[in-house]
């Protein structure tokens, strides 16, 4: 496995992690970095598809005692999540980290989202995250502590074109704060990461389109998200809880990508001298 992490191998000793959606994109980078950092220990496990687990296992040096285990689980289904958590505990006896990375949505103007589509996205991104947090806490972290990181999104200026996921991710941002307080007495830290990274569904066109909106003038890569996640899981973040780290090169502070066409549909301002002054300003003959 390539040594790409800025952290030292051995950072995560004797740990067991659940990374939902750990086999693709950002989740794959998180799994790979955790594996790299846990490579000198015996039992580190990540949850993904068989083919992806095999691929990661093959990249491990033969001397590495770390392992990757594929387990199927639909996070929208509470019983499947409970079964996943019990299965991990039966196999490995502990759960130190939970990364709620599994998620997704489709792009659509709000007016065209069906009730079924809305519920599917809320179920996946909000309820699925809640299921995983609750199940891991009840079965293990309540008694033993641990660290949870939720992956959300850049929804700070709303999320036009993906309003369902914007609402779900804003809710997870708030859930993070509630759980950080409720579970503090168990020694559980709960944080979020709000990434901007490459997004395959919309492909190279979005990639090119979004570059001018980034203060960095490039998109992030999954490895730049996984390092933030590993930091929040690590002892270096031992005094951080209830926080959301924006990993977006400042993009959420910059322009919106959403274009509002010119229109005259906005309600008139109230009559009065200020409106007259405004009209003067907009008048092409104005000397102002
Ligand atoms: C300017 C843009 C900036 C972009 C920034 C992007 C930031 C985000 C990045 C990422 O999230 S990366 C992850 C990429 N991967 C995904 O997003 C995966 C997407 N898919 C899913 O997660 C799921 O398919 C789903 C959307 C949650 C749907 O769940 P499921 O497939 O199980 O379906 P059902 O529960 O049966 O519901 C289907 C229901 O949903 C509606 N729907 C689904 N897809 C679309 C679509 N493409 N367009 C419109 N509506 C859709 C629809 O109502 C479906 O019902 P039916 O019509 O099929 O009855
Ligand atoms: N890339 C980006 O710029 C951004 C990404 N995000 C979020 O970051 C996370 C990772 O995204 P990214 O790596 O880009 O995309 P991916 O599509 O590669 O990753 C999403 C993962 O979530 C899994 N998943 C989806 N629904 C479920 C479910 N119901 N139960 C279990 N697993 C599920 C998928 O598994 P499967 O393939 O088997 O369905 C997949 O492995 C997602 O939550 C995404 O929405 C947020 C903002 C920006």
From TrEMBL:
Gene Ontology biological process: fatty acid biosynthetic process; phytol metabolic process
Top EC class of this enzyme: oxidoreductase
Catalytic reaction(s) noted: (2E)-tetradecenoyl-CoA + NADPH + H(+) = tetradecanoyl-CoA + NADP(+); (2E)-octenoyl-CoA + NADPH + H(+) = octanoyl-CoA + NADP(+); (2E)-hexenoyl-CoA + NADPH + H(+) = hexanoyl-CoA + NADP(+); (2E)-dodecenoyl-CoA + NADPH + H(+) = dodecanoyl-CoA + NADP(+)
Source species: Mola mola (Ocean sunfish)
Key words of the record: Fatty acid biosynthesis, Fatty acid metabolism, Lipid biosynthesis, Lipid metabolism, NADP, Oxidoreductase, Peroxisome, Phosphoprotein
Function comment: Participates in chain elongation of fatty acids. Catalyzes the reduction of trans-2-enoyl-CoAs of varying chain lengths from 6:1 to 16:1, having maximum activity with 10:1 CoA. Has no 2,4-dienoyl-CoA reductase activity.
Annotated pathway: Lipid metabolism; fatty acid biosynthesis
Complex formation: Interacts with PEX5, probably required to target it into peroxisomes.
Keyword Phosphoprotein annotated: yes
Single GO molecular function: trans-2-enoyl-CoA reductase (NADPH) activity
EC number(s) from the headed UniProt entry: 1.3.1.38
The keyword Transmembrane is assigned to this record: no
Localization: Peroxisome
Gene3D superfamilies, per the entry: NAD(P)-binding Rossmann-like Domain
Name of the protein described by the UniProt record: Peroxisomal trans-2-enoyl-CoA reductase
GO cellular component, one term: peroxisome
One Pfam assignment: adh_short_C2
Source organism, top-level taxon: Eukaryota
